[in-house]
Amino acid sequence: LMGAASQGSGGLVSVDNSALFDAGASSDGLSRMTDSSGWNQKTFTLSTWFYLGSNAASIGGVGWPIFASDHGSANSETTWWKVRINTSSQLVISNWNDVITTQVFRDIGWYHLVIGVDTRQAVAAERYHVYVNGQRVTAFGTTNYPSQDIDLAWGEASEDHWIGNYDNAAYAYNGYLAETVFKSGSQLDADSFGEFDSSELYWTPKSQSDILDLSPTFYLDNESV
Asked: Which of 4, 121, 169, 212 yields a CA-CA distance of 20 to 30 A from 57?
């Protein structure tokens, strides 16, 4: 697919091997169950390229779910961690309480999203590093950051972790996802996954070899699906 992926100006970039998710089929989504050891729940990074579909297909009014993990019956920052574009087109990172951008996202082309997490940080705003198209996001309308040193639900042992779904196949993403990468134990920045082209205008994906050099916990290149 081709689409806009520039900061502040229009442009076209190519993102290979995108996967189409259809919110009309509520079971759409990918899941990965952790083993009995789980992943690092304090420090991790998620990266993906997304191209939004129509919000008319949103199920249950949650918008477009991108990442999700929850467990148990209690709703708290230790049992619930989800990332979505809400029906107001804002990015929401929810550890039950929300962090919400003022920036809005439309179905106009590709966006590259990186979320670097480290709950060990003393400064609350440093616990989430959010990047869109290579630039760190600093404008948030809601800033309920997770508690210091807490174990978040993403990484919980023996639990399903969803991509392109919100809650155990109940609410599905609508649109394309590509180059989805997870790195447990590291709070990485956007430069680990993307780079500006020779014009310095357009943010583009790094090569597969560069991504694999990160020793990712998982990397979805969509070549075999």
From this structure: 4
CA distance readout (Å), 56 to 52, 53, 62, 64, 103: 11, 9, 11, 10, 20
Residues 97, 77: contact at Cβ < 8 Å?
yes
DSSP letter, residue 202: B
Length of the chain: 225
**Dist CA 116 CA 114 (whole Å):** 6
Nearest CA among 85, 79, 83 for reference residue 94: 83
Whether 133 and 55 have beta carbons less than 8 Å apart is answered as: no
Assess contact for 50 and 66: CB atoms under 8 A: yes
Q: State the DSSP code for 198.
A: T
Q: Is the pTM of this model over 0.70?
A: yes
Most distant CA atoms of the chain, gap in Å: 51
pLDDT digits (tens, 9 = 90+) for 48-79: 999 998 766 666 678 899 999 988 767 888 89
Residue the block writes with tokens 């760190």 = 136
Other beta carbons within 10 angstroms of residue 161's beta carbon come to 24
Q: Is the dihedral of CA 208, 48, 4, 16 positive or negative?
A: positive
Higher pLDDT, residue 94 or 70: 94
Query: CB burial class (10 A; 0-12, 13-18, 19+) of residue 189?
Result: middle
Average pLDDT over residues 214-224: 91
Q: H or E segment at 209?
A: helix 208-212
C-alpha 93, offset from chain centre = 9
